[in-house]
Specification:
This protein has about 220 residues and is α/β, with parallel strands linked by helices. The chain is built from five helices and twelve strands. It has one domain (about 10-30, about 70-205): 3-Layer(aba) Sandwich (Oxidized Rhodanese, domain 1), CATH 3.40.250. This is PQQ-dependent catabolism-associated CXXCW motif protein.
C-alpha cells in the first residue's frame, strides 16, 4: 500500500502537449455538488488558524467547507484516530470517504483530456465523492444512497465510519445524511485522512465507487 501524492494531469491526444497540474491547481477548487459549483477542500492543506469550535447546527452546513467543525453530531458516534483504527482493524465497519473529486480546471482547453489526480485514502474505504455538500442534486443524492447500500449490503445496522479531512464539513454533512437515510450505526471521524496519517497509519490509492452497469 502506498500514499499517493495529489497531482493532476491533462494531456492532449495524438501526441499533443502534456500538461501537469500541481496541488495548487486544485487547492480549495470548485466541485459541483448541485447545479451551482461550490468550494472543495484540498488534502494536506495548511493548518487552519485557531478559531472557536462552532456549535452543532440543526441543518446541513454550506460554505466554507474547510473550516473548524463541531465536536458533536447528534445521533452519531464521534471517533478519535485510535477508535477509528480499532474499528478498521476489526474489519466489520464500512469506511466511507467523501472527499470531493477535483474539478476540471476552467482554463483547460476543450480538446485536452482531464485526468483526476490520484487519491490516497484509508485502505479498503468506499470513496463516494461530492456527497458532502450542503445540498445535493437528485443524481448525487441517488449516488450517495446507492453507494451506501452497496457498501453495507443494504444492512441499515452495519457500522459506517464517515470521513474526509480534518476541519472538513463534508464528512459532517455526509454522516448526518447517512443518519437521515436510516443507518443506525453511523460514526463520524472528524480528523479523517489527516489524523490517520499523523498516527503513522498507511494509505492506499482509491477510485470513486461506480454502480454496476445494467446488463
Amino acid at each position: 500500500m502506498s500514499a499517493s501524492g495529489r497531482h493532476a494531469v491533462g494531456c492532449r491526444p495524438a501526441g499533443r502537449r502534456l500538461l501537469m497540474w500541481g496541488v495548487a491547481a486544485v487547492a480549495l477548487g470548485i466541485a459541483a455538488g448541485s447545479a451551482a459549483a461550490q468550494q472543495a477542500p484540498q488534502s494536506g492543506a495548511a493548518t487552519l488558524a485557531a478559531a472557536p469550535v462552532p456549535p452543532e447546527p440543526s441543518d446541513y452546513h454550506f460554505e466554507p467547507y474547510r473550516a473548524p467543525t463541531p465536536q458533536t453530531l447528534s445521533g452519531a458516534e464521534v471517533l478519535s484516530p485510535a477508535q477509528a483504527q480499532a474499528l478498521w482493524r476489526g474489519g466489520q465497519a464500512v469506511f466511507v470517504d467523501v472527499l470531493p473529486r477535483p474539478p476540471r480546471p476552467a482554463a483547460l482547453p476543450a480538446d485536452t483530456v482531464w485526468r483526476d489526480p490520484p487519491h490516497a485514502s484509508i485502505p479498503g474505504a468506499l470513496w463516494l465523492p461530492n456527497v458532502g455538500f450542503g445540498a445535493l442534486d437528485a443524481a448525487t443524492e441517488r449516488y450517495f444512497h446507492d453507494g451506501l447500500k452497496a457498501g453495507t449490503d443494504g444492512d441499515l445496522q452495519r457500522q459506517i465510519v464517515v470521513f474526509c479531512l480534518k476541519d472538513c464539513w463534508m464528512s459532517w454533512n455526509a454522516a448526518k445524511r447517512a443518519l437521515a437515510a436510516g443507518y443506525r450505526r453511523v460514526a463520524w471521524f472528524p480528523e479523517g485522512a489527516d489524523g490517520w496519517t499523523a498516527t503513522g497509519l498507511p494509505l492506499e490509492r482509491l477510485e470513486p465507487w461506480q454502480p454496476a452497469k445494467a446488463r
